[in-house]
Automatic annotation (TrEMBL):
<dbReference type="InterPro" id="IPR053136">
    <property type="entry name" value="UTP_pyrophosphatase-like"/>
</dbReference>
<feature type="domain" description="YgjP-like metallopeptidase">
    <location>
        <begin position="31"/>
        <end position="241"/>
    </location>
</feature>
<protein>
    <submittedName>
        <fullName>M48 family metallopeptidase</fullName>
    </submittedName>
</protein>
<dbReference type="Pfam" id="PF01863">
    <property type="entry name" value="YgjP-like"/>
</dbReference>
<dbReference type="InterPro" id="IPR002725">
    <property type="entry name" value="YgjP-like_metallopeptidase"/>
</dbReference>
Length: 249
């Protein structure tokens, strides 16, 4: 039923109606069984050595509805992330972890383009003759300004707690990195984090500030991170699985 992948891993599959679910079982000294799904849709099971394969197989059948639901959500997010933004009325945009609808209003009395939050809408007020092609530029700049303001507040908050103060903070736009910290104490942050929840943003800030104490990803480093962001594993996993949804292109 399964084939070896690594020494302590096996690949299995179950068939639920017309759907086949493949999953990798990794054996370890842990005490409980865990099921996770990575961003590529790979189902991973971590299990104690003592648990039988038949028990794990039975558990996967019981969890099959949940697994299929999560796989569909993952596929939907991936497709949504690949869809280019058109910047039209009613289009959905993320801001601090919540979805808002874009509302574009043209007004003859409006002299300058402005952006604001109204209820569940991101409202852009525009002069009558404003070039629609510039809406993306206006909205992008608004996101960046909001991020600068919020990130500065959160950095000050956690710097006081952790006891480290960055020499310089730079806001960047990167495809694969959410933040970085140099040996000189300079921190870079990706402005697209403004689309994630405040908890996720806080985790990234804590992560980079903690690098000013430990410039590595050692066990000691993660202990420090956990002191100031106890749920950091959840936020780290969220970014791994959902980072592509923080899309502005």
């Amino acid at each position: 039923m399964g084939s070896d992948i690594q020494k302590n891993q096996k690949l299995f599959n179950i068939k639920v109606e017309d759907t086949e679910i493949n999953y990798i079982v990794t054996r370890s000294n842990r005490k409980t069984i865990g099921i996770t799904i990575d961003k590529n849709g790979l189902v991973k099971v971590t299990s104690p050595y003592r648990v039988s394969e038949s028990y794990i197989n039975e558990l996967m059948y019981k969890k099959s509805s949940w697994i299929q639901k999560k796989l569909l959500e993952l596929k939907s997010r991936a497709e949504k992330a690949k869809s280019p933004k058109m910047f039209y009325n009613g289009e959905s945009f993320l801001y601090l972890g919540n979805e808002f609808e874009l509302k574009i209003c043209r007004d003859s009395s409006c002299k300058k383009a402005t952006v604001k939050i109204e209820g569940k809408n991101i409202v852009i007020d525009l002069p009558i003759n404003f070039n629609t092609d510039n809406i993306k530029k206006i909205l992008r700049q608004w996101y960046i300004e909001q991020f600068k303001h919020i990130a500065a507040e959160r950095i000050n908050h956690y710097s006081a707690q952790i006891g480290v103060f960055p020499k310089k903070v730079t806001i960047r736009e990167q495809k694969t990195r959410w933040g970085s910290c140099s040996s000189k104490g300079n921190i870079n942050l990706n402005w697209k984090l403004i689309m994630a929840s405040l908890e996720v943003l806080d985790y990234v800030i804590v992560h980079e500030l903690c690098h000013m104490i430990a410039m590595n990803h050692s066990e000691e480093f993660w202990k420090i991170v956990g002191t100031f962001s106890p749920q950091y594993k959840n936020y780290r996993d969220w970014l791994r699985h959902n980072g592509e949804s923080l899309n502005f292109d």
